[in-house]
Amino acid sequence: MSKDKYSSFRPDTRIVHTGGDPKAFKGVVNPPVYRASTVIFPTVQDMNEATKNRFDTTFYGVHGTPTSFALEDAMADLEGGYRAISVSSGLAAITTALISFLNAGDHLLMVDSAYGPARNFCNTTLKRFGVETTYYDPMIGSGISDLIRPETKVIFTESPGSYTFEIQDIPAIAEVAHQNDIKVMIDNTWSAGYFFKPFEHGVDISIQATTKYQAGHADVILGHIITKTEEDWHKIKVDTATLGQAVSPDVSYLCLRGLRTLSVRLEQHQESALALAHWLQERPEFETILHPAFASCPGHEIWLRDFTGSSGLFSVVLKDYTTEQVNAMLDGMDYFAMGFSWGGFESLMVASDPAKIRSATTWEAAGPLLRIHAGQEDVEDLIADLERGLNRLTGKA
Q: Which end of the chain is more exposed for a tag (fewer CB within 10 A), N or C?
């Protein structure tokens, strides 16, 4: 099915059909797995033509196969971008995009609430190669103009922020950035490209850990870079190939299969997370709910303006309980597992101290922070699990 044919479809219908082409695959509804390293050509002319168009055809397995191309078409359509590029992980999507637009002597503005491994990349690899990073307050908005230098080339955003869930004013940041010929990148994993359309708000390059909601079953490691323009896509694609970034066709297939149910899964994640957050809000053990749909979350008004919904991930801040008390709570959970990914069918909960990595802002909270992912379990079972955990926290168990 051509893009023109489904461009008028509503979002849920597009998710079902985008990237699919049954005519090309002998009637098969979901593009099959093409495992390939070598691709052979019948004539020298055919080989030369394929070499010239190596990013648009099945030329060599490392550059992609019909399976990965189908997924990339679907991801670009989901976000409303020009084209997408598959890479080996969400972190690889971040690092590859940054490498493509930063050179020695350049300056990067990185949001202070960024994903920890992204911060580590800035502080180690980029620093080693002569790129200076300045961290900025996620709530800075148009005030970011005060931090821009002549050598600033990229402003990196993540909205909401990892663990602390600040919603950034992306349009305001983008307006300032483009006045200064600066690229705006966003880690858009939380919204899954479904609840926030980055290119409608001034973003140039969107990044997703498609390990999370697209794949959806906690068994895939994958990342995607989606660009607004052909020029940016080509620049990153060349660098991706130069770096030897390659994605397994089996992983691409699993992600594309997961994408078909993205909207119905997100609806359940959203509903369960909101139910849990409302229940926790009434509990005396908690100081703050950091969920973008709640007024207590920084940038809530921006979320109302720019987003169409919320996913299953949020945080809560406890009152002043000790580490031992929090550990007693976490160690006995039945349904909330401890793990560092999210976006799958399972519910997760981890404790964190954001103060340890902040540098542009100061994290001050009454007590420990818990990040919660609401999975696909029955919400009443999840609430009962939380209640038993809180009894252990307070010594009532």
A: C
